[in-house]
Design goal:
The protein folds into 2 domains: about 130 residues, Nucleotidyltransferase, domain 5, CATH 3.30.420; about 150 residues, 2-Layer Sandwich (Nucleotidyltransferase, domain 5). It is built from 9 helices and 12 strands. The strands form 3 sheets. Strands 1, 2, 3, 4, 5 and 8 form a 6-stranded mixed beta sheet that branches. Strands 10-9-11-12 form a 4-stranded mixed beta sheet. A hairpin with a 3-residue loop joins strand 1 and strand 2. Helix 1 packs across helix 2, helix 6 packs across helix 7 and helix 7 packs across helix 8. The protein is globular and about 60 Å long. The termini are close together. It binds zinc ion.
Length: about 300
Amino acid sequence: MTQTTKPAIGLTLSHHIVAGVVNNNKLASALQSYPPEGEDYEDALIEMPREGIISVMCDEIRALIKGGAKPSAVGVALPGIVRNGVVEDSPNLPQLKGARVEEELCAALKEAGISTTVKAMNDADAVAAGLAASHGKLETTIRVWTVGTGIGFGRYPIVDGIWEGGHTVVTLDDKETYCGCGGRGHLEGIMGHRAMRLRFLDMEPEDIFENAKKGDPRCMEFRKLWHKALAAATASSIHISGAGKFYLTGFNIRFLDQNLLRDYIEQMVRMSPLQNFTFEIVPEAVENEVLGAAVIAQQAIT
Ligand SMILES: [Zn+2]
């Protein structure tokens, strides 16, 4: 990995827009957040039109580089399918569908007197790159599941393709239609936070797993399904790309029982060269995503 001295900026967009300066593959500033700490409410960005989102991103970048060096590159991590600078689809932030994020943010920055390059990417890929950078593994392949509102599948290094692993089909049951994308039988339709709320209209995801512990049959059944779904998608990834390590993160990874997951995967993956898979749970950290976004942006220009 070539060491760079010119800072880059990483920016991630989910419930908040969070940005930070990255230098030599490490976070080098405090994070800027919109909405600011204390003023946050869950749907702040869902209700914001796309022009507003671009302008908040631009303001955050300006605030970060106030008086400092101009960034060599800006990396933007977004939920959804992001290819060639365009958000092709984003079920969890629908107003971004079709947004030419690289072009639009670049133009907004230029107007503010900052000329730099912008690289847009899927947020789970930023998580994977952030883990690679913070674990000193920029030379190895990293796979990560992000278990939150949606389910993301990240890979580092970035390889061309779609990689929407969160929409892996894990069941043929016709009634499984809770995925935010509208597709039937998807992993996210079982594990995603929004999907769980749709399935159990009478309880929150926390209550489902709490009630499963207390022996509620419907919740116990769902807890098994939740783990089996992740096992199935992981087994599919193993059968396509081989075994190895999977990182697990996101705010709902708190519901995971690693032993149960391992048990299900072992039942699904029986070929001996594919059985050396491992997991590591890493706490969700927005710093990691910001770092990864900047690392990918910097690699794109070198
Ligand atoms: Zn889906």
